[in-house]
Design goal:
Its main location: nucleus. InterPro entries: HD, HDZip_class_I_plant, Homeobox_CS, Homeodomain-like_sf, HTH_motif, Leu_zip_homeo. This is Homeobox-leucine zipper protein. Transcription factor. The structure is a single chain. The chain is 61% helix and 0% strand. It contains ten helices and no strands. Helix 6 packs antiparallel against helix 7 and helix 7 runs antiparallel to helix 8. It is rod-shaped. It binds a DNA duplex through helix 1 and helix 6.
DNA sequence: TTGTGTTTTATTGCCTCC
DNA sequence: GGAGGCAATAAAACACAA
């Protein structure tokens, strides 16, 4: 690239003169450009580029940039600003000045732009461009800051969510353990209940049957079988229906059965315990967050949408 | 010295506002 | 419709390692 090559040459030249004042630094360059512009050198198109020594790398003071950019007809200034358009870096002082101005207000009104341009010896357009680029840099930095704080926030939330999850598991295990205990205890209680009820129901009935047998000759009741039936009936005091009564009357002992806990199905056991125990002692899996069904108040998990909203928000 | 990555300056095209 | 802002991009300027 021709311009780049040319510029490198100019840049190298100015690098050799790092402490020169801009005015003195520009002189050799001026000679280069003057000679080049007057020759057929490929140096300078309308957009040829050059670096002014004092500006290079922002090192060294470039006082000329603080001259009015186009106001006094000064020959040097005029010459400087009538160079073909050149891309050059601003001096440290210029940048500091602009930074300070930017800190005060990052938008640039026309009057301010003109004033800054005059104070810095720049084209108003350069000032505008600098503010434009500075705003872009500021925005990028701001986004980085926002990202950092959001990421920290995310980490905090995730940590507390994990804590809650662990606590939920722990509580769930505890509930399961207690439920088991309650079931066992319930079975024991059931046995006691059965025996007590049998005794309570059997004695009066037995007595009444004996009484009625002794009252009438026509009575064919076999006391022994009645006793057996009564024992049977004690399985449930609710057996006051006709069928059971008929069985009692016919003395059919084939219906007699021993009360057997093993006859109680698991469902019955469940139903019983659920009848006797509060609902919260038997949480369903889906109630404690193992289902995508609508959650009830026992749900310690996050609603699905919230989960997605939180965890899909990744970087 | 040179290659390469980053920063800075400047342009372009589009959009919004007055 | 012109001025100004912004995003995307180009390209110079710069830093730095090999």
């Amino acid at each position: 690239m021709v311009d780049g090559t040319v510029f490198s040459a100019a840049s190298s030249l100015t690098t050799l003169l790092p402490n020169q004042t801009p005015a003195s630094a520009s002189q050799p360059l001026d000679s280069i450009f003057h000679s080049s512009s007057s020759s057929s050198s490929p140096f300078l198109g309308s957009r040829s580029i050059v670096s002014f020594g004092g500006v290079q790398g922002g090192k060294g003071c470039n006082e000329s940039f603080f001259l009015p950019y186009d106001d006094n007809g000064d020959e040097d200034t005029d010459e400087y600003f009538h160079q073909p358009e050149k891309k050059r870096r601003l001096s440290v002082e210029q940048v500091q000045f602009l930074e300070k101005s930017f800190d005060e207000e990052n938008k640039l009104e026309p009057e301010r732009k003109i004033r800054l341009a005059k104070e810095l010896g720049l084209q108003p357009r350069q000032v505008a461009i600098w503010f434009q680029n500075r705003r872009a840099r500021w925005k990028t930095k701001q986004m980085e800051k926002d990202y950092d704080s959001l990421h920290a926030c995310y980490n905090d939330l995730k940590a507390s969510y994990d804590d809650l999850l662990r606590e939920k598991d722990k509580l769930q295990a505890e509930v399961a353990k207690l439920s088991e205990k309650v079931l066992e205890r319930e079975k024991l209680e059931e046995g006691k209940f059965y025996r007590a009820e049998t005794k309570e129901f059997q004695e009066p009935l037995q007595k009444s049957m004996i009484d009625s047998a002794s009252e009438g000759e026509g009575s064919k009741v076999d006391i022994s079988s009645a006793k057996s039936d009564m024992f049977d009936s004690s399985e449930s005091p609710r057996y006051t229906d006709g069928v059971h009564s008929a069985l009692l009357e016919t003395g059919d002992s084939s219906y007699v059965f021993e009360p057997d806990q093993s006859d109680m199905s698991q469902d019955e056991g469940d139903n019983l315990s659920k009848t006797l125990l509060p609902h919260y002692m038997f949480p369903k899996l889906e109630d404690v967050g193992y289902s995508d069904q609508p959650h009830n108040s026992c749900d310690f998990g996050f609603p699905e949408e919230e989960d997605q909203a939180i965890w899909s928000w990744s970087y």
